[in-house]
Amino acid sequence: MVIKACLFDLDGVIVDTAKYHFMAWHRLADKMAIPFTEAQNEQLKGVSRVDSLEKLLSWGGIVLDNLKKMELLELKNQWYLNYVENMPADEILPGVKEFLTELRDNDIRVGLGSSSKNAPLILDKLGITSLFDTVVDGNRVHFSKPHPEVFLRGARDLGVKPEETVVFEDALSGVEAALAGNFRCIGIGEPNVLNKAHAVIPALDGMSVARMKELLG
Ligand code: B16
Ligand code: MG
């Protein structure tokens, strides 16, 4: 396989912000007396803010008007931003900077494909914006993962075909998005959750161009 580009999800792949999304959704669920489990949280990973709220409300059997939904979305985001405000720059996950740098040195283009509207702010906070050739975030897409739009836009920005591009994802919705777009996909996390991916690894720590090629056969 020729690899011309890599597209990275943000939350849970580049940085451990997935835990802050979980904390903020949990707080909102508690406020509304909706039981919220780790398994349900798994279903919110990679899903846009507005679609996540719809899922949460449906689990609680709660129907609200749009104004109230906007209020709750604003509240969840404020809590999330408060958590990430105190996030140290070294919270970038181990091995990420090294791998991104190696990709660049090997002329493999690098893009971000995140559902998060806060992605540019997080990259900036970590001081790694310049390591990406393109950033596609929740502000640039119409359809949430598992729709492939976010990755298709990334490939288009980079001038590469999906079949020449590897997507790194920690969410089932993201793995499904990558496959729907005809990308190769390496899952980051639990094999039993991400078993649709072409390969699954626990984290990016120790990842290299050689290892990536080996994993994809
Ligand atoms: P925001 P990713 C996703 O980011 C998160 O996994 C998901 O939990 C979150 O709801 C979504 O971004 C929207 O984020 O509220 O910051 O716009 O994993 O696609 O990088
Ligand atoms: Mg993610």
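^ 1,6-di-O-phosphono-beta-D-glucopyranose complex. The mean pLDDT is 96. The chain has nine helices and six strands.
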